Amino acid sequence: MLLALLLLLSLAACGGAGGASSDAAGAENGAAASTGDAVAMDSGTTESTADFSAVRQNAKLILSADLSLETQDYEASCAAIEQMAAKAGGYIQSSGSYGEKGSRTANYTLRVPQEKFETFFTQLGETCHVVSSNRWSEDVTEQYTDIETRLATLQTKHERLLALLDQAAKMEDIISLENALADCEYEIDSLTGEKRHYDDLVGFSTFNVTLSEVQTLTAVSEGSGFGAQVAHAAQSGLGGLTTAVRGLILIVVTLWPVLVLLGIAGVVFWRVRIYRKTKAQKQIQNDPPQDKTE
Question: pLDDT digit string (tens) for 218-260?
């Protein structure tokens, strides 16, 4: 019995030690998993906030964006867009507005410094309701480098022609060199203007913005799943019902003279019909019945 008791106590001690070791290993594994999740989350954050400024410095990129926006406060939204462009150091290249109050539309072509592209794009989405947006870039590094190379070659040619012109003694040589200088200067001016145009396109990104005044904001699906599609359909249906009711009210208000005339005509027709029916009944009552003979 004594040996049996000692054996049981030994087994219990071994089991407790094993459980403690398992708990410690589990804690270490949990800590390692938490650390891995934190690293993955940091990586995801880094990827979602990627900065392409280094790429833009080494390449000549023309950045552009198209946005379709909606607002229920037209004047305030227009003023906010113009103020944001000015604050970013940009300017309005063109703008226009059309439509009646309640359904107006404004079109903007905005030029914003390239380094403010991402910030301005985000601000537009925070200021107004975004229905659709699209942005892209065009790499013109090769064209820009080609222009710079040709300009350097033409500058060298221009200097050599000037040196030859100083040494020329014959009139025909002078005339020929002057014509060559004129052609060279024309090409230099043309390429300089083209280079300046690229500098403007690269230095200032372009935003094409369409702002629509609406009473009900268009529902935008926040996913591709079945639940998101159902929610989008429900919001769209509610917006369509509201638009239909509003349109019906506008039709009634617009056609009220016609509706009044139709109402008067209907009342007159109903009164005339009652009058004729009453007259016919009185006539039947007053006429004596006639005897029928075979």
Answer: 876 555 555 545 554 555 555 556 666 767 787 877 877 888 8
pLDDT-derived band at 278 (thresholds 50, 70, 90) equals confident
Q: Residue 90 gets which letter from DSSP?
A: -
- Cα–Cα separations (whole angstroms), residue 289 to 280, 284, 292, 293: 15, 9, 9, 13
- Within 8 A by CB and 6+ apart from 60, the residues are 139, 140, 141, 143, 144, 198, 202
- The sign of the torsion formed by the CA atoms of 166, 172, 175, 179 equals negative
Let me know the angle formed at the C-alpha of 190 by 141 and 152, rounded to the nearest 5 degrees: 60
* Beta bridge pairs of residue 97: 106
H or E segment and range at residue 105: strand 105-113
At 228, list the tokens: 């998101």
Q: What is the mean pLDDT of the chain?
A: 79
Which residues make Cβ contacts (< 8 Å) with residue 168, sequence separation at least 6?
174, 177
Check if the beta carbon of residue 132 is closer than 8 Å to that of residue 183.
no
* DSSP codes, 40-57: HHHHHHHHHT---HHHHH
